[in-house]
Design a protein that fits this description.
By secondary structure, the chain is mostly beta strands. It has 5 helices and 26 strands.
């Protein structure tokens, strides 16, 4: 049965991408590149074909028309909190915003299930980001408008252009149900539906994708778990990485307390709500997404497995 998700499938059929033979793709120079150029794939839309949002309006939580069970990507900084509904992020993928005087980039890759918030400053200068229309290992490749460098969302690193090799700092965030985020952050603001773009935020363009074992683009697969298994990954830049698949956290009673990189961490998973809670000190980075995506970017990752009873 053909899945209803992703206009991308239509684009793949109608617009077959040109790969390694093209040094320029979607208007971006791929020389030099720190990743294999033949793994940089055209997802279908052109550069900015998926429009990022730039400083969109936000509402108070009481005014926001979202249901209690709707998923949001929540972020807090310097006493301010804001929720970004995934129903909007699925259509735009990137939001250039400012929270608590900090310039942030809110990113969501629907193909990898990864919601990550970054500081938009690179070497002290604020960058503005757009959607390139290109992918690496099924993950969003962003670009900064100042240098046209491509950036890998999951790797948090520039992979082409003048910024190649530079990294973005992650800002603490998590995916939560709207009701729970409001309870824990009563003063939160919420991204408004009035984005200035004509999109049907009541309909997901990826319906059925999260439950399917099919992927839209070729990716090296670690088949120990369902490709879309919700997974939290912990890593230290330049150091080790460790994965916590929801299945294993649930088998361990729903909460894990252990040491990672010599520091105490907590990973909890609520199977009813389908969301994680993570407590990890700096410089540990936290990435939540699908198992296949974490494993594709961290093939040497260790994996938490509870001991046999």
């Amino acid at each position: 049965m053909r899945l209803p998700f992703l206009w991308t499938w239509v684009w793949i059929v109608l617009v077959p991408p040109v790969y390694a033979s093209a040094p320029i793709r979607n208007g971006f120079s791929l020389d030099p590149a720190s990743i294999p150029v033949d793994e940089i794939l055209a997802g279908g839309p052109p550069r900015d074909g998926i429009p990022s949002l730039d400083h969109p309006p936000a509402l108070g939580a009481a005014e926001a028309p979202w249901k209690p069970d709707d998923l949001v990507l929540g972020v807090e900084w310097n006493g301010e909190a804001r929720a970004y509904p995934l129903a909007i992020l699925e259509w735009h993928e990137l939001v250039n915003d400012t929270l608590g005087d900090r310039p942030i980039l809110v990113s969501y890759c629907p193909l990898c299930g990864t919601g990550i918030v970054f500081d938009r400053r690179v070497e002290g200068a604020v960058r503005s980001f757009g959607v390139s229309g290109l992918l690496y290992r099924s993950d969003l490749l962003m670009y900064d408008r100042e240098t046209s460098s491509l950036w890998s969302q999951i790797a948090a690193e520039s992979v082409t252009g003048p910024s190649i090799g530079q990294r973005l700092a992650l800002v603490g965030s998590r995916i939560a149900r709207f009701a729970e985020w409001k309870r824990s952050h009563p003063g939160t603001t919420v991204l408004s539906r009035e984005t200035g773009q004509r999109r049907d935020y009541g309909r997901s363009p990826y319906a059925g994708y999260a439950d399917s074992d099919r992927l839209a683009f070729p990716v090296p697969l670690d088949r120990r778990y369902h490709p879309k298994m919700p997974t939290v990954g912990l890593r230290v830049p330049g150091g080790g990485s460790r994965a916590y698949p929801a299945l294993e956290v649930t088998r361990a009673g729903g909460e894990i307390r252990e040491l990672f990189d010599g520091k105490p961490i907590t990973v909890a998973f609520d199977p009813e709500a389908g969301v994680f809670r993570v407590d990890a000190p700096e410089p540990i980075e936290v990435v939540q997404g699908y198992w296949f995506a974490w494993a594709a970017f961290h093939p040497e990752t260790s994996v938490f497995v509870p001991p046999d009873p």
